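ARCHIVE CARD
Drawer: 12
Card no.: 0347
Subject: one protein chain, sequence and derived structure
Cross-reference: see card 0346
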Amino acid sequence: MTRTIRILQGALSGLAASAAIVIATSASAQADRESAQPVETTVPMELRQEIERLTAAVEALRADLGEAERIIADLQLEAERLRAENAALREQARGMNAGGAAPDAPANQSAQAPPPTTALDPAIFETEGPLASPSHLAAALQADYEASLTPPTGTPNDGVLTRYFAELGRWAQLSEPRHEVFRGPVAWVVALEWITPRSPGVQLRFQVIDPFTGAPFSQRRLDVRVPDRLADIVAQRPGHQLWLLGAVVRPTVRVDPQRREPGYFDDPQFIGPYAAMELSIDAIQLEAIGVEADTETTAAQ
């Protein structure tokens, strides 16, 4: 009997130990469930909010993509219009070269007498307006930029920048009627600094000079490629500095997402946050200013 009681006591002790383990395990599981419950309620909410945010961002990007595709189509049409307009402007500028060599004439003037010089007539120069000088043109573009656009400040997010660049890209086409004054034929006095061979033609570097004061409009230099026939005219007067340049000028606005300020070199010329001006100069005519033709070569003619 005593032995049986001992066996039963041992069994009861085992059952008590097992029960204690089960109770402890249940309590631990309950605690885990209680501690995990807030996670189950907060994590899905955060995920839903993130999904909603990403969905909205994707929709905005789709809208921006559609806008970008429309801008590209508009740019293609604008490019065709500008090609036709450029041809018309070239014809108009050729009228400034009356009495000179035809644009397609052979470049053989280097073996002939120097071309006649021209007197500086202030009446032919524009004193006001965008085409009076590159400085006037840059100032006019800056004013139009400021009147037409409101660039983002601070640290804008990608969506704000994308929408602004789309708006800036439309303005940069310069396709509004008011923008016609930014392009056309010009007559500029230029101080020639050097001439460098290029293929085809040669490249000139010069400053644009105020014809009334003789001072440069700015310290900015321009590099312009000219055809051989104009390079021959310059070569006939080595070292001569002042020239009358007849050309067709057209500005191009470059959108630069990385450029918010002018920078140290300011090249190309800064006109506003994310925008800079480049000049297309189609040289038509060059005449030396203020130098009399050589007596002997004039007599030989």
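Annotation on reverse: The chain has a mean pLDDT of 74. The CA atoms of residues 43 and 49 lie 10 Å apart.
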